[in-house]
Amino acid sequence: MHDIHEVCGLLGTTSRTLRFYEEKGLITSTKTDSARRQYTDAQLEQIRRVLALRALGLPVKAIAALQHRDGDLRQAVLARRAEIIASIETRRREIQLLTDALAVLEAGDDLYAQDVRTPDVPSPQNDEIAARRARSVVEGDTEALYRHLGPKLTAYMPRDAYTVVRADTLEPLGEFVAYDRLAHDAESPRVVEQYVRYTRLGLKIRFVFHRGIIDGLWMGYYEI
Question: Is the Cβ–Cβ distance between 192 and 130 less than 8 Å?
Fold first, then answer.
């Protein structure tokens, strides 16, 4: 048996964290006559697994589903990575807005008289490019896709890295069914989303445009 303080020292965690996980049903402990929590070797291994999954950023709900065999570990990791990629894309858009604002200021212009946000209406040209390049993603035509990517995105996302991410993203989708709707982000007309139907899941390909060039690319899922 391992005392709770011993476990905390071994695994680099706190007793408060262990109590929280136990309240959520992720781990169990063995109560002694002194009411102090102790852990068997099997319970210690259970704690190691939970801490490893939390280190990856998986939420408590996802970990609970994995423990009850209602979830798939690979899918959970893919979903978490997709969430992080989405948050990175949001930050990239914010950085671009700040960069545009700095360009206005450095040119000596009045920032408050400029529209440094986005055009007021979606661009038909962007829609056409998004539809064609979505097909490049689905069909694996990397050369055609990269011809429309901006230099910053190309540097940020090398082709070999994109190839791996694309393969991992498409793997759980099933068989291709059809190209679904083309949509625009409600807050930014520069963002165009192509929805693609597969037999198991839908694929959402999100393009962020800057002056007719694809400056951001994100792939996620939607339920069909």
Answer: yes
Q: What is the mean pLDDT of each run of 10 residues along the chain (224 residues)?
A: 92 94 93 80 95 93 85 84 77 79 81 59 86 97 95 91 94 93 83 94 92 90 82
Domains of the chain are 2-67 (1.10.1660.10), 73-222 (3.10.450)
Beta bridge partners of 217: 207
Nearest-5° angle of CA 195, CA 90, CA 144?
A: 50
pTM: 0.51
**CB-CB contact of 146 with 154 (8 Å):** yes
Find residue 216's DSSP bridge partners: 208
Alpha carbons 87 and 112: distance in angstroms, whole number: 28
Residue 197 and residue 178 in contact, taking contact as beta carbons nearer than 8 Å: yes
Residue 202, SS3 per DSSP: strand
Please check whether residue 219 is in contact with residue 82, taking contact to mean a CB–CB distance below 8 angstroms.
yes
Q: What is the DSSP string of 21-40?
A: HHHTTS---EE-TT--EEE-
| Residue bearing tokens 């539809």 | 131
**Cα 45 from chain centroid?**
28
- Of 55, 49, 47, nearest to 80 by C-alpha is 55
Task: Give phi and psi for 32, each to the nearest 5.
Answer: -100, 180
